[in-house]
Specification:
The complex is a heterodimer of chains A (422) and B (477).
Chain A (H helix, E strand, L loop, with lengths): L1 H17 L4 E2 L9 E5 L4 H14 L3 E3 L6 H4 L4 E5 L7 E5 L4 E5 L4 H8 L4 E2 L12 H6 L7 H4 L2 H4 E8 L3 E6 L11 H5 L8 E8 L1 E2 L3 E9 L2 H14 L4 E5 L1 H6 L6 E9 L1 H15 L4 E2 L2 H12 L8 E6 L5 H8 L2 E5 L4 E6 L5 H17 L3 E7 L1 H4 L10 H14 L15
Parallel strand pairs in A: 2-4, 3-4
Antiparallel strand pairs in A: 1-2, 5-6, 6-10, 7-11, 8-9, 8-10, 12-14, 12-15, 13-14, 13-17, 16-18, 16-19, 17-18
Helix pairs in contact in A: 1-2, 9-11
Chain B lengths: L5 H11 L4 E2 L2 H4 L16 E3 L4 H13 L4 E4 L16 E4 L6 E5 L4 E5 L4 H8 L4 E2 L12 H7 L6 H4 L6 E7 L5 E5 L10 H5 L8 E8 L1 E2 L3 E9 L2 H13 L6 E6 H11 L9 E9 L1 H17 L4 E4 L3 H12 L1 H5 L5 E4 L9 H15 L3 E6 L7 E5 L6 H18 L18 H4 L2 H14 L30
Parallel strand pairs in B: 2-4, 3-4
Antiparallel strand pairs in B: 1-2, 5-6, 6-10, 7-11, 8-9, 8-10, 12-14, 12-15, 13-14, 13-17, 16-18, 17-18
Helix pairs in contact in B: 1-3, 8-10, 13-14
The chains are: A alpha+beta (422), B alpha+beta (477).
């Protein structure tokens, strides 16, 4: 209730100061994450609002497309910050293979421009057309290409954010190799907006391979699919090695089996060689798609929407333990096989106590593989009873609490949403 | 030994035994500097724990008496990162040198932090794997030192630097507490504290163990040596190769001064008359390599290369890399002293910065050689001087500073892989605002609230003198 009052009061104050058009009501999806939405037109305006919020202890969070926060916040923050108006490319130098852009830019919008220089930011979260650079970094989104290209963590070389006191802080720089100062990119990456509002990012970009092809191979047993994935991953520099459980495979109009969906790329010579090698290793069971179908199926593979699931989670284990863990969980999944990461879900809404038990069991299985599990999405009725993030060990958690209280002394940045209630 | 009272010494002896403690001034002289030899200062005591438990007990004992320490690996750093500054104790990790576990199934290796970089690759190469970061000092430098400095190397153009290859760490905090950060998984649980520790130059505690990523050896390599009439034409070739979409495993340049020094020292067949040479290594699938190598050779020739030579076998390839990685050693023959810089510029600014470097060389009347990671825009100008000649140290320092300032003006950075240490601490305000530096200091205090771990490094203290030529210097200016 207090937050509601704060939101409307802040809206009243911001209107006259920054312009009435800066504040709006949240959409249905955003309403789970924030009570009002602030759309700043400049970084200075963010600084101003952060200072106001700090003074009055009003909670706020960067909201992106609200897909992540709407699924993991138990109650909305007072103010959601949308960087829709801060979505310009500041500097893109194809010959340097770097881009500086405002955090509201989407991955797709940048990649559409970079394509003219045969380059891309090779991070492929679901629906990159709505994934902003800010959320790519803050929520650690990634996709199948993480195997060959790494994640935002590997490509982010500079960052600018508004921290406590409304101060604009920058770390890193514009050059691809740089060890001057502490690595604030790592600190802000995967922090889910709990340490400040990312406003600008500098990434390394990569060349788009001359050709890309997708091979789809069906297996009756998960163990065979993972075995094949591991053999491929050993023999060839695959772009991605994904395994889908049967019901997900069926959504791609493919056989109702465990599907190994593996991509490879290069010049036509390299494509020919890899296709041959895949056949040699795995036999003739599956098919290697042509250029256009490869692209289409890859996009379907990339774009599975976990936020629509009644209960979905992401498990991370050592790569060789992933199949064992998924098997023990006994659920539908999309696995990044070489990376030891998978998204898994149940298709029907569980009761509150069932949801708790399911997540607890999944976590136990993850821990047995020295891994951890994070809830990606949960239906409204069960969300309040779930711990979304796994708990780090005690020593690490103590440091994390110190980091949070140092970077956010007023505890206003997306509070009570991250690990152990941070 | 002034700050170390007898009860503390007794306690340290009880923890480590006398054989793991060095306290005689003559023996401590070996530890007075790293590869940044411009400034020197010996610790009062050197402690060499053999295990995490010993190291933790040592740090707790120092913490109880409010004594600061400086961590040290093999002492091959190039920015004075392990120079003792207001830190009486030096803690060296070189005796913690076990490879704990090699896990091929998961492409991970767990090592103690005193393991030598090259020993990791040596341990796994028979099975077709390697550890990617490969600094020139890799025969001697330790993984712990690499983590502190976030070290790179020639092959980081394609494979990334140390931070891209570290998944988990065991760290002893300055009060002696042992913490596990990260782990064997690619996703993290909570804040990325591993990412905060890597590159923190030993100011966040001492790393005792690390879980590293192993990479699969590429199917094959092609290593080319291209000779150019001058550095300008060589840099044009670098741009052309990168713009073509070919991403070499490594793309290195040496100018004439360095090429000649290396050839004189090692006789590897480098063209002594060339104005600059590029070592271009392509790696990947055999099926594509010949075509890529031909394309690269054509591009080099179109930029004026007088000769492009392909290493015929592994022995020739190894020889080229030996030449490149020993370039710094070869330079030792040219002058009694040298200082290596580590500036970075956007790749497209390479021709401009090389012109600046030759102007600086003329202005200060000092020879400067260039050997660098051209693909990354990471320069290593080597400034030759003689500390016995009055004024030369001063000129060498000023020349280096001018080069770094030019790098920053071009949108670059002070350091690509050597770290800030003490060498570039005075230049940090050129790159970061007071607010940036304040937040970085706050981050440091999360790990080290009392400022005991490697004091005086990375961040200039507010109001402190940032002049490099400080009274601690023992060499003549």
């Amino acid at each position: 209730m207090a937050d509601e009052t704060h939101s409307s009061e802040l809206a009243k104050r911001i209107g006259p100061q920054l312009g009435a058009d800066r504040m709006r009501n949240p959409t249905a999806l955003e309403a789970n994450a924030a009570r009002v939405i602030f759309e700043p037109a400049s970084v200075d305006e963010i600084c101003e609002v952060v200072r106001m919020c700090e003074t009055d202890r009003i909670t706020l969070a960067p909201i992106g497309a609200a897909r992540t926060l709407s699924q993991i916040r138990r109650s909305p923050v007072a103010v959601g910050i949308s960087l829709k108006r801060l979505s310009r490319i500041v500097a893109y130098e194809p010959d340097d293979m770097t881009v500086v852009a405002e955090a509201g830019l989407t991955v797709s919008d940048f990649n559409a421009i970079a394509a003219a220089s045969r380059q891309r930011l090779p991070v492929d979260p679901p629906n990159p057309q709505v994934t902003t650079l800010g959320s790519l970094i803050g929520a650690s989104h990634a996709g199948p290409l993480r195997l060959s290209e790494g994640t935002a963590r590997d490509l982010l070389i500079g960052i600018r954010f508004v921290g406590h006191g409304g101060r604009v802080i920058h770390g890193g720089g514009r050059v691809v190799k740089n060890v001057a100062g502490y690595d604030l990119m790592k600190v802000m990456g995967g922090a889910f907006g709990t340490l400040g509002i990312i406003t600008e990012a500098t990434f390394k970009v990569r060349p788009i391979p001359p050709q890309y092809r997708l091979a789809i191979l069906p297996y009756e047993r998960a163990a065979d699919a993972f075995g094949a994935a591991s053999a491929l991953n050993f023999a060839l520099p695959m772009s991605h090695v994904e395994i889908l459980s049967p019901s997900l495979g069926a959504r791609l109009d493919a056989p109702n089996k465990f599907l190994l969906m593996t991509g490879f790329s290069g010049t036509s010579l390299e494509i020919g060689y890899q296709a041959e090698k895949i056949r040699e290793l795995l036999g003739d069971a599956g098919e290697i798609l042509d250029v256009q179908p490869s692209r289409e199926r890859y996009e379907m593979l990339r774009d599975f929407d976990w936020t629509a699931m009644p209960l979905a989670a992401q498990i991370a284990t050592r790569p060789a333990g992933l199949e064992r863990a998924l098997n023990a969980c006994g659920v539908e999944f999309r696995a990044h096989a070489g990376s030891g990461v998978a998204q898994m879900f149940v298709g029907t809404t569980p009761t509150t106590s069932d949801a708790r038990k399911i997540v607890a069991r999944w976590r136990e299985i993850a821990h047995a593989e020295r891994g951890h599990l994070r809830v990606l999405a949960a239906a409204d009725v069960v969300r309040n009873d779930l711990e979304m993030f796994d708990q780090p060990n005690e020593g690490a958690l103590r440091l994390m609490r110190r980091l949070k209280s140092t970077f956010d002394p007023a505890s206003i940045f997306n509070p009570a949403c991250f690990v152990a209630g941070i | 030994m002034n700050s170390l009272d007898p009860p503390l010494l007794d306690e340290l002896r009880a923890i480590l035994g006398i054989e793991a403690i060095v306290s005689r001034a003559t023996e401590l002289k070996v530890y007075e500097c790293d590869g940044w030899t411009v400034e020197k200062s010996s610790p009062d005591i050197l402690l060499m724990p053999r295990s995490t438990a010993e190291l933790s007990a040592v740090m707790a004992a120092l913490d109880r008496r409010a004594i600061a320490y400086v961590p040290r690996g093999a002492g091959t750093g190039l920015s004075g990162g392990c120079l003792p500054l207001n830190a009486p104790a030096m803690i060296c990790t070189s005796k913690m040198n076990r490879i704990v576990e090699i896990d091929y199934d998961n492409r991970r290796v767990e090592v103690e932090s005193g393991v030598v970089n090259l020993h990791v690759t040596n341990a796994v190469k028979a099975r077709g794997y390697f550890y990617a970061p490969d600094p020139s000092s890799q025969v001697a430098c330790t993984i712990g030192g690499n983590i502190a400095e976030n070290s790179g190397g020639p092959h980081t153009l394609k494979y990334g630097v140390t931070t891209n290859h570290v998944l988990g760490l065991e760290v002893v905090l300055p009060d002696g507490e042992i913490v596990e950060l990260g782990g064997p998984t690619e996703e993290r649980c909570g804040y990325d504290l591993v990412g905060a520790v890597v590159g923190a130059e030993g100011t966040t505690g001492i790393v005792t163990r690390a879980t590293l990523r192993l990479m699969r050896e590429p199917e094959n390599h092609r290593t080319l040596l291209a000779s150019f009439p001058d550095v300008d034409s060589a840099t044009r070739a670098v741009s052309l190769i990168i713009a073509s979409g070919i991403l070499p495993g490594a793309l290195e340049m040496m100018d004439q001064l360095i090429t000649r020094a290396v050839e004189d020292a090692f006789h590897v067949g480098l063209p002594a008359d060339a104005g600059a040479v590029l070592i271009i290594e392509l790696d990947g699938l055999e099926a594509g390599l010949t075509a890529s190598a031909d394309a690269v050779a054509t591009m080099a020739q179109s930029c004026g290369a007088s000769a492009v030579k392909l290493a015929r076998d592994e022995a020739e390839r190894a020889l080229l890399w030996k030449a490149r990685k020993r370039a710094f050693g070869a330079v030792g023959r040219l002058a009694p002293n040298y200082a290596t810089q580590d500036g970075v510029v956007p790749r497209t600014c390479l021709p401009q910065i090389l012109r600046v470097i030759s102007e600086v060389s003329r202005r200060y009347d000092l020879r400067i050689g260039n050997v660098f990671h051209a693909g990354d825009g990471n320069l290593h100008p080597i400034i030759l001087y003689d500390e016995r000649v009055p004024g030369q140290v001063r000129r060498a320092i000023d020349a280096g500073r001018d080069i770094l300032k030019a790098c920053i003006e071009m949108g670059g950075s002070l350091t690509g892989e050597h770290g800030i240490g003490v060498e570039k601490i005075g230049e940090m305000p050129l790159l970061f605002s007071p607010d940036d530096l304040r937040v970085m200091t706050e981050l440091r205090h999360v790990f080290d609230p009392k400022g005991r771990s490697n004091p005086g490094k990375v961040i200039p203290e507010p109001g402190a003198c940032v002049e490099v030529a400080a009274p601690r210097r023992q060499v003549p200016i």
